[in-house]
Amino acid sequence: MAKKILIIDDDPEILSYMEDLLKEEGYRTFTAKDGVEGISMAQMHNPDLITLDMDMPGRGGTMFYVKLRQEPSLADIPVIVISGVGPRPPAISKSVPVVSKPVESVKVLRLIKEMLGESVTE
């Protein structure tokens, strides 16, 4: 069964790009435009991994991450921050990788595969 990835970003172009990129690799994708919708989608779909933008209206990336880690059924889902924002917010664990925008597809796909325990081909 295909791994499920939740993409959270307020930029429709990034959502579309990431969705196309991940579907091409055989992943099932779900999207959310902010942290509130992201929590709802995470609860509904229990993804294997989440990509998270930091700077969004409403509940941004930091608040989403804190809420995610407080929910026992969601707390262990791996997260990759994909953001154009500056340094890592203190609330985001140092074990969470941060990828800067614009997204380098090869780099982000390698990171996703590593975090999901899949083999990485060169």
UniProtKB/TrEMBL annotation:
<protein>
    <submittedName>
        <fullName>Response regulator</fullName>
    </submittedName>
</protein>
<dbReference type="InterPro" id="IPR001789">
    <property type="entry name" value="Sig_transdc_resp-reg_receiver"/>
</dbReference>
<dbReference type="GO" id="GO:0000160">
    <property type="term" value="P:phosphorelay signal transduction system"/>
</dbReference>
<keyword id="KW-0597">Phosphoprotein</keyword>
<feature type="domain" description="Response regulatory">
    <location>
        <begin position="4"/>
        <end position="116"/>
    </location>
</feature>
<dbReference type="Pfam" id="PF00072">
    <property type="entry name" value="Response_reg"/>
</dbReference>
<dbReference type="InterPro" id="IPR011006">
    <property type="entry name" value="CheY-like_superfamily"/>
</dbReference>
<feature type="modified residue" description="4-aspartylphosphate">
    <location>
        <position position="53"/>
    </location>
</feature>
<dbReference type="InterPro" id="IPR050595">
    <property type="entry name" value="Bact_response_regulator"/>
</dbReference>
